[in-house]
Amino acid sequence: MGFAFSLSLGAGFCIFFGAGWVILNHLRKPPVKTLVDNPPVKTLVDNPLLDFIGYKGLVKKSEFIRILTDALISLGFDDIAALLEERSGIPLHSAIVKQFLKLVKDGEWDKCIDALQGFQLRDEKPVSFLLLEQKFYEVLNTGNVTDARRILKEMVRLRVDTNRVHELASQLIISAPGEDTTESVNSRSEFMEKLQDLFPPGVIIPERRLEYLIEKSLVDQVYHCSFHNVPDSDLSICYDHDCEDHKIPSETVQILEEHIDEVWFLKFSHNGRYLASSSKDKSAIIWEINAEGKFSLKHKLEGHQNPVVEVLWSPDDRQVITCGENEVIRSWDVDSGAFVGSYERNGVGSISCGWFHDGSGIIGGMADRRIYLWHLNGTEIEHEQGQRAQNLSDVAMTTDGKWLVSVGKEQHEISFFDRETNRVEDVIVEEDMITSFSLSDNNSYLLINLITQKINVWYIQGEPMKILGLDGHKRSRFIIRSCFGGYDEDFIASGSEDSQVYIWHRTEWREPCRVLSGHSGAVNCVSWNPTDMHMLASASDDGTIRIWGIDKNLN
Length: 555
Ligand SMILES: [Zn+2]
Fold this sequence. Notes:
alpha+beta; disordered N terminus; 30 strands; 13 helices; single chain; binds zinc ion; Methylamine Dehydrogenase, Chain H
């Protein structure tokens, strides 16, 4: 008989693991009838050896069946859930719990409190207190302050949590009649969690428990996955997950060769569809990706008199700005490739540039060691940062628009200029000269490249804190740029003077997890595609751009 039960349970189980939808349909139509026609199978209590399942025998079969029943109900298969309860002889909840939960669902709080007697709890008061609290919110939402006050008095008499009663009393004062406090509506699931915790374990099965357990297992697998780098949609509950190191971009998938001199800078657009590069050849190029994932030249942006040190995307990817070395900052239309306008200070050349977080303005780091701001139409915005850098390099604005970040005094400092208070609020001091920096998209981390070929990673939410230093890449003469990228920005990539690209992962920052060879000149800059975590680009003195993808032989 036990064997017969296992078969029927097995069919139900498939509902959750892959190809079970077909089986489910069979269960819902003719096969269901067949099963109902079969006499109920008494199983679990018949054979104590079957009470536990799992490869370590840790799972109580009765509990497993109960969460299966709950899962079926949450998926809308109440009829199959009822069948499972009947066939197994194990109800999701006892009759008294079922009745109690119905009263909770209907908001019959006084009857809920009366029903507690049937549970013979060691202490009913905390449960009554919680039920009254929920009742308080619902009454308050109707604007009935008198009744809400009466409920508070009942709660006081229980002597469970005086502070909480005071908190609720304060809501009586701030709540206008008829105003929806929304707290009770939003906290219904939280209320159910608290309620379950007040009963002995297993009396009330938490809703969607199976879903929770399976998802938690996935979260744990991702957490322990070495070099995790796949989108969440790639996860499957049908097998154990482990990326190993197969999902790190490591193979050249394309070489772009339209520049005729050293490529100094490159950056993917926010939507991942374009790549912009700039070169010593005084041009910038906008590359567009096709359906096969291959890039082709969309526009060559020409007009600068000097090498182009940076090309940066507007937040909406409709424009780029280019920074000519000791020259002007120009803006360009991405669609047409047309020159839109320039941003300059008479007689003062530009060193670096950046966008406002919302695309409404341009930042220029200029040769007179000052930072200038312009509206998009070219009008200058008054800005006095006070402290001048000895020699400015990068400037950037955080994506929330709060901070203007720049290399400060004597190039050993990073300044955080607060745009609300109009002054420098934080400063990071490095031991060595800073050559470039890069912000993470979530504004939590800052990568600082030092002249000593070291990259320091700082946590910048709140008081800046250095969390580690990366070694491995080679830098002695040029500006080498690094970036965050991959899943959750867990990877750091960097160019290097030894013609290689270095990649580190958060789990093992000390050693690079990949060193990519292919370029024949110094790698000046790298960019990780923000919408394709398997795509990395690198720009080199060899005049080429390499697009790196995952190794197809390993995937
Ligand atoms: Zn993984």
